[in-house]
Design a protein that fits this description.
The chain has 7 helices and 7 strands; from the N terminus they run βαβαβαββαβαβαα. The chain is of the alpha/beta class. The N and C termini lie far apart (about 35 Å).
Length: about 180
Amino acid sequence: MLDGKKVVLAYSGGLDTSVCLKWFLEQGAEPYALYLDLGQSEPSENVEQKALSIGAAGAFVRDAKEEFVSEYIAPAIKANALYGGKYPLFTALGRPLIAKKLVEAAREVGATHIAHGSTGKGNDQVRFDVTTASIAPDLAVVAPVRDWNMNRPEEIAYAKKHGLPVPTNVTEESPYSIDSN
């Protein structure tokens, strides 16, 4: 299905997206990684190098902090938008912007697919999928972690088997990743 296809993956450098990148290579795809700097304080050069070392055909690193603040965060603050009336929607608001930038990168390289590492357990997958469908219905969306139904211990084992770096804060006892934002 993906053999010979170009895919642009929303790449954070974490376990899920690193496993996705390797999986695309196994499927015969030509994967590209897109890291979007929204102010999450991850050193972008480390993420870019990690993607390329895993085998990405290319790695885009884009600074979207200004666009994120002016077009997403500021309007949300003005609207007093809170998730469940309790906390800001900033991570959720980042997903449509990431999807928009995935589409832009896909157009640059002539990709037919975009991808994300959402697991299928939360709303992130919906935000990526719906945004992409609304602005680029010609692009297919792939979510390998969701589609495999692979759990964290299985992802960790897959990463170790393929020599992928596993973040030190992700263990079988504590398999959850936490966004620094």
